[in-house]
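Chain A, query sequence.
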Amino acid sequence: MKCLKCDLKVWNRDVFGHLDIEKKRVLKEIEVLNNQDDGIEFGDQVRMKRLDLLGQLKVINKKCESLHRQKARTNWFVHGDANTRFYHIAIRWRRLKNEVKGVNVGGQWCEVPEVVRREAKMMFEERFTAKRDFGIGLDNVYFKSLSADDSMRIISTASEEEVKEAVWMCEGSKSPCPDAITSTLLNTIWRLLSMIS
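Chain A, predicted structure.
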């Protein structure tokens, strides 16, 4: 296992590289391109290079997040939900990730807590307030329905002739379950069953 661990470290370094170093390099190149701007419009070549660097940064961020998630899962397997430093860090990280820091109000970004709370409340009230008229009408929609005779036939008791006809229509080798009698045997003993009932 120790040899495998060493080989995996070498493979990881060769395939993925050092993500933190790579991320710093990409951010530095983006910063250099941004500083070159100086109010002048980007050329097509510079713009394409910048888009390529932003794509690389996005991929690196996804790899870093995946790696952190895997490490957190490993730590959770070891420590579980015990009252440890790891547990509280994980809770704090999840809260920060799920936190709503601001909202767009009238085309402007606002991070004032009272405004964020008010906008969130208004949004949920709009979504979940029941309205009397949903705008759905079924006036011209006709549903198929059973006639009164068919309805009565469904709830009425089946006659002996109907049961016999249903049994005779079944294939001979069929049975309701593996250890039940087959239709052929039922056809053979039908007269005996009808005399008993």
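Residues 7-98 form one domain. The longest strand covers residues 103-105.
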